[in-house]
Amino acid sequence: MNLFSFLFLTVSQSIWGLLIPVATTDFHSHSKDVTEYMLSTTDTLPKTQELQEVVVIDQAEMIRREESNAIELVKQDFIRENRGGSLMKSLERVPGVNLIGIGSGASKPLIRGLGFNQVLVVENGIKHEGQQWGADHGLEVDQYAADQIVIVKGPASFKYGSDAIAGAIDIREKLAPSEDGVGGSVEVGARSNNAWYGGSANLFARKGKWFAEGRLTLADYGDFKVPTDSVFVYDFGVALSDGHVRNSAGEEMDFSGRVGFLGDNFRNTLMISRVHTKSGFFANAHGLEPRQVDTELHDQSNRDILLPFQEVKHTKVINRASYAAGKNFIQMDLGYQRNDREEWSQYVNHGYMPAIFPSEFPYPSTLERAFDKEVFSLNLKDELFLDRHEISFGASGEYQHNDIGGWGFLIPAFQQYSVGFYGIEKFTVNQLWKVTAALRFDHSQIEVEAYQDWFPSVEDASQATAEDYLYRAEDFKRSFDSFVWSLGFNYSPGDLSFKGNVGTSFRMPIAKELAANGVNYHYFRYERGNADLDPERSLQVDLGVDLSKEKWLVSFSPFVNYFSNYIYLNPTAELDILYGAGNQVFNYTQAEVFRYGAELSVMHQLTDQWSIELLGEYVYSEQMSGDKEGFTLPFSPPPSGILNATYKPIGGAVFENPYFAVDFRVTERQNNIVPPEKVTPGYQLVHLRAGSSISVLGQAIQTDLQIQNLFNTRYLNHTSFYRLINLPEAGRNISLSLSYQF
Amino acid sequence: MKKITSFLCLSFLLFSCGEDENPIDLEYPEIVVTENSFPLQCSVLQRGSTVEFKALFADNVELGGFSLDIHHNFDHHTHSTEVSDCNEDPVKAPVNPWLLIQTYTIPEGMTEYEGAAEIEVPEDIDPGDYHFLIRVTDQEGWQTLHGLSIKIE
Question: For residue B105, what is the nearest residue in chain A, using CA coordinates?
Fold first, then answer.
């Protein structure tokens, strides 16, 4: 269920009448952090459901009316009802949000067509580091632990720093339990397409000012199924066994825990989490070229994870301390995280690599690449609430240490640090007008380590000299300074509300863009970085119009965006021989880019039981300079829309709050492509959702059923990782989940 | 369906879903088979001999470069660009298979180019079924692959 429908259906006219004055007078002058802080004593317990709904509505509406950026707030209910194999898959329905899917269990976010390092992910106040390296790296987040998600669709560097140039996904855990006692929840589910089963359980307890919580999430899935017998991986025909995408099975085990102290002024929460995933790559589409796959071995079982596969362990320790006194709210986040990723694949020699893997090498012959990232972060902020001013100052610092391993080479090891300082002023001019201004300064430095080949580049290895061991990366240091600003307004005259924001944003180039120099085995291409790249800069104008009147909820948010130097991977005419095994060379380069687009959302309550909804998104991008002038950007999502009808009959004693929803999704053809992309045909899909809280022996069990891709339509998703090899998306998928709270 | 799509387009007010008029190059370079082309599908190469590769490349704007890749097909993997009907030998394990990867430049400003290269077939390699892959790029970065099945005796 969408946020709007949630708002609409849970709030009667009379509550709206009561609520808005409350929101604009009392709560309006506080930041959402303080609101959460204040409200945490009344949230989360089922017994306080009614009050909670009022709180939720208040908060969502308040965020929309208070922030001048284009912003969406997604609650756990929405995630539960739309749950997919990964967090971003569950959020795909939000207009302006797309994803790069990597198989069935991993994905990375795209906001208005931009992704990778241009979208920043924050989990519990700390920037999530790890998902950015390549298109095959998903977001290592436990979607069951995410309670609410704020999606900023547009530049947010002033608040979050580098990487938030295209948007931010701010994931927050549940608030602390409000009353003394012990409670918990269990959610289990199954999905038909990839024979997925899994679930999550959590336990929490509160005594006086102390609370503790723990969560365990497990999932196991087989190869996903596509509605086709064979695919052509570039030039190579690949037969699929019963439509199974060979070796795309995976498993996940996550746990998290937190302990907190909730004082009257001082609060402290320590959080520890670990996400561990192991997932296979489509066996026929990895290597120098798609061949020599033992299909018999792979097809013996649809659940085994054979080579090639990736394994990721992401560990986080975050401590959040806050102090509220008088008009001040001070918060300090300290974070440590480690992203340990290994890509396993059979050794394939190319160029001058020895035909037989040397036994004295410190890695096993199947460890193609390893990345080990450690990040230390510190965020400090002070918020001041003075009459009509809400002023916040903050500082942040981050240090990263990155090591590499394995026989393959793409990105060298590197160290980087960054510091930033910002100030944000929110000024309430009067009941109707609010103005926001922000300034931020950042300094960052990256130090790339040299990398020397472990094999000599000569015909006869026994005659090799020291010079024959080539350097693939030279050591170098770059530093970047950046100054960004943002200016916005909110104008809320009754039913209508308007917002606007103009601001700059930046992103410092990452190690991959500066220093990549090797074969990308997923795409059979040679990627080469450019050490002279400048930080990406962007200027964006955002507008927003919201209408909430009687039985209508309408939201329209257009934007215009200009990049003076967008960094992208440019396919050239060159073919490499030394390291690339004859593959095409792709260079990181930068160009001016102009983009515009909009999202639309219209919700209409037909009767007490029936409602309809229309969601749409459109984005246009064009490169204004450089080799690909006139072309779009890679991974540009085509225009798409969802037409939804929802029926919510009056529940009975057994079935409480039942719902039935049908989504008709129309995605246009994507003609706007850039090499090496292919034109992607349009498609229509139908998804069904139904659910209810079912009372069994006096206990309420929330049951949700989804049928995705009802007609088993064969279609290609333009932004999918496997689009370039023409792999269709998953076929029909029936998904059932049961959840119980105690 | 059309109606719904048009409705979605209309609903974006300022932003059209209409045709894009940009004169960008979306055409892939071509590998044209002529009577001079060598090798052809099912051609037979002799070990220890020197053969002349020949193929005609064409592009609507400007050609980039080309590369040749010869690798064994003892495992009978398939290519989409040619039908494999060359009486393949039985599947076998490689001992000393031939691998050749070579890249070549195409002079600037060409929309048509006769690619040629001398290839020495080594004496001591495994005979059998091989694939002969030709890759050609254009200046925009589009790449075309052409795969041939050949036999080495």
Answer: A574
Which B residues in the span 84-113 are in contact with A, Cβ-Cβ below 8 Å? 101-103
For chain A, domain boundaries: 3-322+334-741
CB contact under 8 A, B67 and A673: no
For domain B27-152, the CATH class is mainly beta
* Nearest residue to A571 (alpha-carbon basis) of A531, A512, A522, A626: A626
Distances (CA, A) of A62 to A55, A381, A600, A670: 10, 21, 20, 36
Contact A681/B at CB under 8 A? no
Question: What span, in angstroms and rounded, lies between the C-alpha atoms of A541 and A561?
Answer: 6
Question: How far is CA A481 from each of CA A90, A157, A506, A561, rounded to the nearest angstrom?
Answer: 37, 13, 10, 22
Contact A398, A420 (CB under 8 A): no
- Tokens coding B107: 């002079």
A522 pLDDT more than 90: no
pLDDT tens, position by position, A277-288 = 999 988 888 766
Indicate the residue of A572, A627, A672 with minimum beta-carbon distance to B20.
A672
> Residue range B57-84: average pLDDT?
79
Per-domain residue ranges of chain B: 27-152
Enumerate the residues of chain B whose CB falls inside 8 A of the CB of residue A682.
Answer: 5
What is the Cα–Cα distance from B70 to B148, expressed in whole angstroms?
9
Taking the CA of residue A298 and the nearest CA in chain B, the distance in Å comes to 16
Distance from CA of A349 to the nearest CA of B (A): 11
Q: Is the pLDDT of residue A418 over 50?
A: yes
Q: Could you tell me which residue, B90 or A646, shows the higher pLDDT?
A: A646
Closest approach of chain B CAs to the CA of A571, in angstroms? 5
Contact A291 B26 (CB under 8 A): no
- Give chain B positions within 8 Å (CB) of A289: 71
Closest CA in chain B for residue A596: B15
Residue A350 touches partner B, C-beta closer than 8 Å: yes
Task: Find, among B75, B134, B102, the residue nearest to A284 by Cα.
Answer: B75
| Residue-wise pLDDT tens digits, A364-374 | 989 998 999 99
Residue among B4, B80, B140 minimizing CB distance to A232 = B80
Q: A153: closest CA among A235, A227, A68?
A: A68
- Between A85-99, A124-138, A225-239, A261-275, the lowest mean confidence (pLDDT) is in A124-138
Cα(B131)–Cα(A396) distance, rounded to whole angstroms?
A: 56
Q: Is A208 exposed, middle or buried (0-12, 13-18, 19+ CB in 10 A)?
A: exposed
Interchain contact, B22 vs A577, CB within 8 Å: no
Query: E-strand spans in A429-516?
Result: 433-448, 451-452, 471-473, 476-491, 496-507
| Of A237, A558, A572, Cβ closest to residue B14 | A558
Phi, psi of A301 (to 5 degrees): -140, 145
C-alpha span between A542 and A305 (Å, rounded): 45
Q: Which of A530, A603, A536, A535 is nearest to A572 (CA)?
A: A530
| pLDDT score for A162 | 84
Residue B64 forms contact with A (CB below 8 Å)? yes
Mutate to test the interface with A, among B99, B137, B138, B148 (most CBs of A within 10 A): B137
Q: Determine the pLDDT at residue A35.
A: 40
The answer to whether the Cβ–Cβ distance between A350 and B101 falls below 8 Å is: yes
Judged by average pLDDT, the poorest of A191-195, A345-349, A710-714 is A345-349
Average pLDDT in chain A: 86
B28 close contact with A: CB closer than 8 A: no
Give the residue-averaged pLDDT of A239-259.
93
Beta bridge pairs of residue A399: A376, A417
Please calculate the CA angle A223-A227-A233 and round it to the nearest 5 degrees: 75
CA distances from A163 to A84, A335, A375 (A): 26, 18, 15
Q: Does domain A3-322+334-741 have CATH number 2.40.170.20?
A: yes
